[in-house]
Write a structure and sequence with these properties.
single chain; alpha/beta; Rossmann fold; Dihydrodipicolinate Reductase, domain 2; 2 domains; five-stranded mixed β-sheet; 12 strands; binds nicotinamide-adenine-dinucleotide; 4-hydroxy-tetrahydrodipicolinate reductase
Length: about 280
């Protein structure tokens, strides 16, 4: 790591998370913005990364050449699109740099590609990079284990801003995975992603999802565990995107020292053994 800190590339630099990351990296000791990447054809190419994120000129021009941006970097932080993240995983593995993936909505096929890249690269991937949500996932797993499926129904409710393109959110799915793990079942076999019309009574042991979209909500999640005559609700409210950005920067610095592999935020936060 150089004297000015770990050299990070932000891909998706003009996005909501990209701009947040550029501002945070600028003010975080131990890391520096090495390059900022946007998709080919973006109107932000050539603009200064600091200008587009409200910092003023910082002397880093936004580029679409990810390969050149990665060559002398030490890590990449990626909140883009599933197709973009798959390409960046290949390039980051080639460049032997740490890759932090926050992108959600990835398919099983995409996940296989991340696993393949992680044979040679250090990847941290999580549907939510905040400390609070990762703690919530540990609590969800413990609650799901403690409260039997025959008497307690688990429902996951989320709300996000109206521009979000995938549903349920990556965080809702992460919480669903935690609940399924607590009950020793596969989420894919038990999840109910939508309900409409005459659905019949709720089947015991299923894990339901409900999605709300609107306004500028950054991310609200509740895990509702409903029993006969009582209900437990575990919830998280994101008031600010910096919680994801700070987690992603911490993940990049943590990954710098690890062996190749696919890690989660639970590993970064030291919560993996608390499940
Ligand atoms: P956004 O649409 O504001 O930004 C995405 C940016 O990525 C855009 O500027 C877009 O041009 C760019 N991009 C897309 N494909 C690209 C490619 N191939 N090459 C370069 N740039 C590319 O979206 P956002 O709100 O910043 O969210 C981005 C992703 O991060 C979403 O999948 C979202 O769900 C996820 N997210 C995850 C967390 C977390 O903690 N894991 C938190 C917030 C958002």
């Amino acid at each position: 790591m150089s004297g000015d800190g770990m050299k990070l590339v932000v891909v998706g630099a003009a996005g909501r998370m990209g701009q947040t990351l550029i501002r945070l990296i600028h003010q975080t000791p131990g890391v520096q913005l090495h390059a900022a990447v946007e998709r080919e054809g973006s109107s932000f190419i050539g603009h200064d990364a600091g200008e587009i994120s409200g910092l003023g000129n910082i002397g880093v021009a936004v580029t679409s050449d990810a390969l050149a941006a990665f060559v002398h970097a030490e890590g990449v932080i990626d909140f883009t699109s599933p197709a973009g993240s798959v390409v960046f995983a290949g390039l980051a593995a080639q460049a032997r740099i740490a890759h932090v993936i926050g992108t959600t909505g990835c398919t099983a096929d995409d996940e296989e590609k991340f696993e393949a890249a992680a044979r040679h690269a250090r990847i941290v991937k999580s549907g939510n990079m905040s400390l609070g949500v990762n703690l919530l996932s540990v609590l969800t797993q413990q609650a799901a284990r403690a409260l039997e499926a025959s008497n307690w129904d688990i429902e996951i409710l989320e709300m996000h801003h109206k521009h979000k393109v995938d549903a349920p959110s990556g965080t809702a799915l992460l919480l669903g995975e935690a609940a399924a793990k607590g009950r020793c079942v596969n989420l894919a076999d038990k999840s109910v992603r939508v309900r409409d019309g005459h659905t019949g009574a709720r089947e015991n042991g299923t894990i339901g999802f409900a999605t709300l979209r609107g306004g500028s909500v950054i991310g609200d999640h509740s895990v509702i565990i409903a029993g006969e005559g009582e209900q437990v609700t575990l919830s998280h409210h994101a008031a600010d995107r910096t919680i994801f950005g700070r987690g992603a920067i911490a993940a990049a610095v943590w990954a710098y020292h690890q062996k190749p592999g696919l890690y989660s935020m639970l590993d970064v936060l030291g919560l993996a053994n608390d499940q």
